[in-house]
Amino acid sequence: MIRLTDVQRAFRVGDDDVHALRGVSLDIANGEYVSVMGPSGSGKSTLLNIIGLLDRPTSGVYELDGEDVTSLTEKRAARVRREKIGFVFQFFHLVPRLTATENVELPLMLAGVPSDERAPVVSGLLREFGIAHRARHRPDQLSGGERQRVAIARAMVMKPGAILADEPTGNLDQSTGKDVMQLLEALNARGVALILVTHDPLLGARASRQIRMVDGQIA
Amino acid sequence: MKAIDVVRFAWRSLTAYRSRTLLIVLAMSIGVGAVVVLTSLGEGARRYVRNQFSQLGTNIIIVFPGHSETYGGSGGMISGRTPRDLTLDDALALRRVRGVKHVVPLNIVAGEVWWNGRHRDVPVEGSSDELALLWRLKMAQGQFLPPMDARRAASVCVIGWRVRDELFGTQSAIGELVRIGDRRFRVIGVLQQQGEFLGLDIDELTIIPIASAQAVFNLHSLLRIALEADRREDVDAVKRDAARVLRERHEGEEDVTILTEDAVTSAFDRIFTALTLALGGIASVSLGVAGILIMNVMLIAVTQRTSEIGLLKAIGATPQQIRAAFFVEAAMLSGAGGIAGLVIGQLGSWGVRQAYPSLPAFAPMWAVIAAFVIAIVTGVAFCVLPARRASQLDAALALARR
User: Which of these, A5, A23, A97, B171, has the minimum number of CB atoms within 10 Å of its CB?
Assistant: First the structure.
């Protein structure tokens, strides 16, 4: 499903070239559960951004579902992100002025799905994730765990093939974090590929496949 | 993304940042309101002048002595000519022009009116009975100058309201003899109080027959001759024929200026329309200022919402969608400001009308529409930069920040 071939990513910081990724090749199959670990600055986030089409490789090839997506236009990339990838972030990134329901329906809205078709999808997801009673609350009225559930619902609303989670429990206490992980893993069990970036070795160990990044390369 | 969703999304951010929204709407509404009020002032002045002229009657033609023309070169002093005077005989000759209803010779001289040891400095007007018809003069007491041969220097006069008040106080003026210059005139009428008309205070006026005025003040020429045509269609023909008659009388020289009331009114119309445009232009500077304010606020919004924009990109918003969201937000802001401004402007010009009832201060429709359209266009135009900045934002970087 995801195939990276000799992907390099270099940034220019002042006069220096910083190599965030130095020739990464990686295959992730449909429905796989992969954790990406490594110290900060090792290139984990850059890797995740490239997989999520938020960033582009300086060189190398990225194929997603057999299609070369290395150099899509911004508009095409947005479409692919919308349809094939769900993001879950450490800081939730919910829109503060919108209710839980409205946050979850954002991707559907961007996709041009009419309002009456969005409603059943969104309320179904909220019920499934146990936050139906919080549907009309704004993020600042929700607990951390509830916020992350809303964020996961938002990531799932377009039924993507893969979820990219960047430290999804980094901002939660241990038991809430565990609940969130169970939710993500349940989704994975239903066939959604889960790519988890973390520097928590215990969390990373739960994945069926573990990738260690060191200095821009897979160790 | 459905249009209704774009609007709803923008609406949510307008209501979420309420004080910011109110401030921009206020700024924009002041700009629009200023345009409406100032153009209504200009338009009011235009209508005021137009009303004044319409009191004159519509088919008026005015003959002035002199004709602006350039003579000779730099030696103008030598080759220039003095224009021939306009005389009472000229006026009488114009009576023969076809289609003329009234011919009114006019002279106005600063004079003194004496009665019983008291006197008052007033403009003394020499004219004829038809002046009352031309100027729509109404009598408070007595009668106006009677119809008579214009060459007859009858010793009667008609006085204005204030002249009567000041000279006679509570006594009756009708039938009294007043002295103007070295002659005595019998007061046969008092004009109704009617204030200023074309810059002349009617209430201060004393009117005597034209021939009497020529004799008392030792005049040979007329200030001007006013003609009224029978019908509107005749105005041009009368003007042409009058010019021909006067040319013949003046040995073939075009030495008079003939204006139709139409030409004068439309000249004033043009002047005041230009004034209104200028006022509107000045006021629209404030619209520009409001536009810059919107740009600033939107730039701040882009910074404030960096992570939100990053998120929108991550969940599949295209750069076009992000631009659209900002544009719609700006358009709604300036649209709301525009509507509020129209309300403010209409209230303002209503206030002006209350304060100065003689000034019909109504904003012209074109100014109202232009102010509203300019408000929205500036709002959106000044949003180009912020919207572009938002759409070009690096999502990965935006999401890395908390």
Answer: B171
Count of domains in chain B? 2
Domain boundary among B229, B260, B287: B229
CA–CA gap between residue B172 and residue B177 (Å, rounded): 12
- A97 Cβ under 8 Å from any chain B Cβ: yes
Last residue of a domain, one of B179, B206, B229: B229
Q: Taking CA atoms, what residue in B is nearest to A156?
A: B315
Q: Is B203 exposed, middle or buried (0-12, 13-18, 19+ CB in 10 A)?
A: buried
What pLDDT, on the 0 to 100 scale, is given for residue B185?
94
Residues B16 and B129 both lie in one domain: no
> Is pLDDT of B199 > 90?
no
ipTM: 0.91
**Residue type for position A22:** R
Residue B345's domain comprises 3-52+271-400
The kind and range of the H/E element at A75 are: helix A74-84
Mean confidence (pLDDT) of chain A = 92
A33-37 vs A193-197, strand pairing mode: parallel
Question: Which tokens go with A122?
Answer: 């969104």
Confidence of residue B82 (pLDDT cuts 50, 70, 90): low
Flag whether residue A175 sits within 8 Å of chain B, measured between CB atoms.
no
Residue B189 DSSP SS3: strand
The reply to whether B217 and B288 lie within a common domain is: no
Q: What is the mean pLDDT of residues B302-323?
A: 90
User: Which residue from B minimizes the CA distance to A163?
Assistant: B315
Contacts of B227 (CB under 8 A, 6+ apart): B60, B61, B62, B63, B94, B97, B100, B102, B103, B104, B238, B242
Q: Nearest-CA distance from B312 to chain A in Å?
A: 8
Q: Do A129 and A153 meet the contact criterion of CB atoms below 8 Å apart?
A: yes
Assigned domain for B80 exists: no
Contact by Cβ (8 Å): B76, B402: no
CATH no. of A32-51+74-218: 3.40.50.300
pLDDT the model gives residue B20: 87
- Contact call for B310 and A106, based on CB within 8 A: no
Q: Rounded CA gap, B365 and B201, in Å? A: 34
Shortest CA gap A209–chain B (Å)? 25
Q: What is the pLDDT, as a whole number, of residue B79?
A: 46
Amino acid sitting at position B281: G
B196, part of any domain: yes
- What are the domain boundaries of chain A? 32-51+74-218
pTM of the shown model? 0.71
CA distance A17 to chain B (A): 17
Q: What percent of chain B has pLDDT over 90?
A: 30
